[in-house]
Amino acid sequence: MNLFAALIRRELILALRHAGDSLAALMFFVIAASLFPFALGPSPRVLAGIAPGVVWVVALLAALLPLNRLFGADYEDGSLDLLMVSGLPASAVAFGKIIGHWLTTGLPLLVIAGPVAIMLRLDADAVPQLLGTLLPGTLLFSLVGGMSAAITLGARGGTVLLPLIALPLMIPAVIFGAAGAITAHPAAEFAMLFGLLALFLPLAPLAAGAALRAAVS
Amino acid sequence: MKQSQITPEAHTPEPPKGAVLRASALAAIRGERVVFRDVSFALAPGDALQLIGPNGAGKSSLLRLLAGLTPPAAGELFWQDENALDDPPLHATRICFVGHQDAIKPGLTVADNLSLQGRRTEGEITAALASVDLEQFAPLPARLLSSGQRRRLALSRLALSKAPLWLLDEPTTGLDAASVRRLEARFVAHRAAGGMIIAATHLPLDLPGAQSLELGRDSGR
Fold first, then answer.
1. Mean pLDDT across chain A, nearest whole number?
2. pTM (predicted TM-score)
3. On the CB side of A38, how many CA atoms lie within 13 Å of its CA?
4. What CATH number did the domain enclosing B195 receive?
5. Which strand (E) or helix (H) includes residue A120?
6. Is residue B5 part of a domain?
7. What pLDDT does residue B217 have?
8. DSSP-based three-state secondary structure for B76
9. What are the domain boundaries of chain A?
10. Nearest to B108 among A2, A17, A78 (CB)
11. Nearest to A172, CA basis, from A136, A121, A124
12. Which domain does B168 fall in, by range?
């Protein structure tokens, strides 16, 4: 546990020193979401209708941006070798880095999603429900994205391959997340979101750990 | 048994009494090629083993195998008569691995690079940097270091580790003569304290009484 806490602390220090990487994802989120009013016109009725879906999809794309550096940077400079022989199981290394991704990308996206949704003319009363779906949503982005990043680690063209693997896996989360953000009775959608979370919470670190072992060997 | 690739000094049909680390007929395959096979040796506390051989002979592959990063294609590795690679997290506590890459984050300061592996007191980090004569660079970003200084920073991790077995891949690459002498003095101290060293190198390295293991004589067969 001590080693695990040290790993998360390491991820936070690195994210803090390379704050540009995390900020880039947030800036992408804001800019991409603000393109929709330009493309669709400023009609509040249209924007409010699409706001939850836009926030969900753009947040997903923004969360993917830093993923190819999640393991890639450590893989290239040899740090991953040291992490793998740090005394933590490979799946714990993967899980620690996935938590690091959520803390430095998912959580900031969650914080900024409210203002972006209001910018898109979403009714302020509907914002808490949207954020409620995005909480398991961003966790799923980090879990599935981190798993995909580990699987594509070291592959030629991994940067392109990563979204091709991660995005189809995220389709169920987008369906239930975006639906749960607008429906009047979201219990079923939330149950599905947390069901997906219960599936990927053990699966993603195990798969990513196996992929990391294969990448360093 | 196939003809052994190892030199007579390292060849120990009966493992000597007190051997802690024992490799038995290890083999590695990269791609479709057998990099080495039938590698056997035994190390007791205080022993050192120098891996020699041409480029591509599998020195780095053997070190990564011994570190538990790569599973062996054949053979077994024993630590005190238990299979060492059965429990990778436990094996990791026995080794300090310094690979051919320095694993340095250029954006972080020299001192912060050492604190990434875990919470360290300032005194521990200063002592580790002093062991490679880098303490005056502690607050500087690591990107300002020369390649030899980066190598020294990577080697300073040895001072932070309490592991008995050091696995070093070309530790002296880029080091000046004074740094090599300082490193050799630390090797002596580590071995005197009961530690073991396995180093791959093609540069002359003074490891008194070290076994040597030549790889690559019949690779690819």
1. 93
2. 0.89
3. 5
4. 3.40.50.300
5. none
6. no
7. 63
8. strand
9. 2-216
10. A17
11. A136
12. 21-214
